[in-house]
Amino acid sequence: MSYIIIMIVFDSSTLILLAKIEMLELFISNYKGRLLIPEMVRAEVCIKGKEETPLITRLITENKIEVIKIGHGGAIKKLMEDFNIEAGEAEALLLSVQEGAAAIATDDRNAIRASKFLKLEFITAITVLIRAFEKGLIDMSAAVIKLQKLQSVGRYSKAIIDDAMRQIKEG
Prior knowledge:
Blueprint: E1 7-10, H1 12-20, H2 24-30, E2 34-38, H3 39-45, H4 53-61, E3 66-68, H5 74-83, H6 87-99, E4 103-105, H7 109-117, E5 122-123, H8 125-134, H9 140-153, H10 158-169
Parallel strand pairs: 1-2, 1-4, 2-3, 4-5
Helix pairs in contact: 3-6, 5-6, 8-9, 8-10, 9-10
């Protein structure tokens, strides 16, 4: 008998955004699969002095987020050049493909474009927020406050924020 292991690969943007709106631990505690990040993402998110660093470092230390080393071959460089993305996003994309991840968590516009091209499912911090609300993990007022914080710390268009707000208000 074989078991399917569900996993999500995170890039820096979504990890940081979820940490900033205090949704990262809630997501992890309610997700039953594996959460992976490549080495480069760990380097990008564990920067001394950043507000989210202690939380993310602790989650890595507790093995709630697994750090996976992947080769820095030509594939990473090609992804960076083809999609105008940084090394962390390129490693996360490559890791998603190599591990057969259910999705990549990214809020980076170019990484989302690359995900679509590579036919990878993707989720964003807003997706996580809306799903948490739909599942009753947070109430409407908390969802609205967290969305407003995402609007202030993230790089979202007004249309994306308005659509997310509509989804929350319509329940």
